[in-house]
């Protein structure tokens, strides 16, 4: 593929000598195989405009003109212009009278190639861009976001401290949560506590089912380490006492159901994206009165109010 086309005008006197051929060969060898040098005879009294028009008609990259400064042909003037515009360049070459015509042509051709170095470099860059494979446009995409974890299991060891009465106990709780919104979750759970009512020589057991809401002030997420929430549960409490003394051949049991509620402040600290520590504290109420009788004598009352402290783990999935 010819990338450089150079049109060179010489005097009619030189056209019949070896000079044009030696000039063209030297220039093409220096510029490379993608260059073509075409020699034409300089018309008498040709203007610069006429030379440029001839270069445009030949789709030439550059137009060169060679003229002798003196009659002895000791000095040659080489001028180069671009048909597309730009500054003209030139050089004067001096020869000895003994220099062969062919060597003179070769010298002019090498200087012509040197002066055309900017065009050669520009053509190389153009060819490199044309031959380079197109760069596929790659849309900048971010990885799809992780699906939010909407469910969680909580398991805790908890204690209920009875206030102004009997009924303290220690046990555990399990809960399943569904979080349809970032800041709201629905929780279902069960809990069990065990204790003693010493004055009645009785073992106490409290079982409860819970259903409620969790309102997150700081919601759990993969990007945060801590979470903070308010939890409110409605309770159905099964209170049971088992009394055994030396004068009773069999344990005496009593139990009943009470509605209740609890309100806890709950904090979480992430151990991993799916597992965290959980601590909760708050009051619990039983809506009803439980009196404890032994041999038909009241010996205690189970407190309807307890302070609950719970600590455990919560797993999100």
Q: Keyphrases for this structure?
A:
single chain, 317 residues, alpha+beta, Porin, 2 domains, five-stranded mixed beta sheet, 5 helices, rod-shaped
Descriptive report:
By secondary structure, this protein is of the alpha+beta class. It has 2 domains: 4-131, Rossmann fold (3-Layer(aba) Sandwich), CATH 3.40.50; 151-316, Porin. It has helices at residues 12-15, 19-31, 48-57, 101-115, 117-131; strands spanning 4-10, 35-41, 62-68, 75-81, 89-94, 151-162, 169-181, 184-197, 202-218, 226-243, 252-270, 275-286, 290-294, 297-302, 305-316. The mean pLDDT is 87.
The name of the CATH topology of the largest domain is Porin
In terms of per-residue confidence, which ranges show pLDDT below 50 for 5 or more consecutive residues? none
What number of structural domains do the residues give?
Answer: 2
Q: How many H/I helical runs? A: 5
Task: State the distance separating the first and last CA atoms.
Answer: 65 Å
CATH class bucket of the largest domain:
Mainly Beta
Mind telling me the C-alpha Rg? Answer: 51 Å
Question: How much is the average pLDDT?
Answer: 87
Written as H for each helix and E for each strand, in order along the chain, the element string is: EHHEHEEEHHEEEEEEEEEE
Task: Show the helix and strand layout.
Blueprint: E1 4-10, H1 12-15, H2 19-31, E2 35-41, H3 48-57, E3 62-68, E4 75-81, E5 89-94, H4 101-115, H5 117-131, E6 151-162, E7 169-181, E8 184-197, E9 202-218, E10 226-243, E11 252-270, E12 275-286, E13 290-294, E14 297-302, E15 305-316
Parallel strand pairs: 1-2, 1-3
Antiparallel strand pairs: 3-4, 4-5, 6-7, 6-15, 7-8, 8-9, 9-10, 10-11, 11-12, 12-15, 13-14
Helix pairs in contact: 2-4
């Amino acid at each position: 593929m010819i990338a450089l086309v150079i049109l060179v005008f010489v005097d009619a006197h030189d056209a019949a000598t070896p000079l044009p051929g030696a000039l063209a060969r030297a220039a093409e060898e220096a510029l490379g195989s993608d260059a073509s040098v075409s020699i034409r005879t300089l018309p008498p009294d040709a203007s610069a405009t006429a030379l440029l028009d001839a270069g445009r008609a030949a789709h030439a990259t550059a137009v060169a003109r060679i003229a002798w400064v003196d009659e002895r042909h000791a000095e040659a003037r080489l001028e180069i212009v671009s048909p597309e515009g730009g500054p003209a360049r030139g050089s004067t070459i001096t020869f000895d009278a003994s220099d062969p015509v062919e060597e003179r042509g070769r010298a002019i051709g090498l200087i012509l190639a040197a002066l055309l170095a900017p065009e050669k470099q520009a053509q190389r860059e153009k060819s490199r861009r044309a031959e380079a494979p197109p760069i596929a446009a790659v849309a900048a995409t971010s990885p799809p976001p992780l699906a939010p974890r909407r469910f969680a299991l909580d398991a805790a060891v908890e204690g209920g401290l009875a206030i102004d009465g009997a009924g303290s106990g220690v046990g555990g709780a399990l809960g399943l949560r569904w979080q349809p919104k970032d800041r709201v979750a629905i929780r279902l759970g069960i809990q069990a506590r065990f204790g003693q009512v010493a004055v009645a020589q009785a073992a106490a057991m409290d079982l409860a089912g819970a259903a409620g809401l969790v309102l997150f002030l700081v919601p759990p997420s993969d990007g945060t380490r801590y979470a903070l929430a308010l939890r409110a549960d409605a309770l159905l409490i099964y209170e049971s006492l088992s009394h055994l003394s030396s004068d009773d051949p069999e344990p005496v049991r009593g139990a009943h159901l009470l509605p209740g509620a609890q309100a806890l402040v709950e904090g979480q600290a992430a151990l991993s994206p799916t597992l965290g520590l959980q601590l909760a504290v708050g009051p619990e109420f039983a809506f009803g009165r439980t009196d404890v009788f032994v041999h038909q004598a009241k010996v205690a009352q189970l407190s309807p109010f307890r302070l609950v402290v719970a600590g455990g783990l919560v797993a999100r999935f």
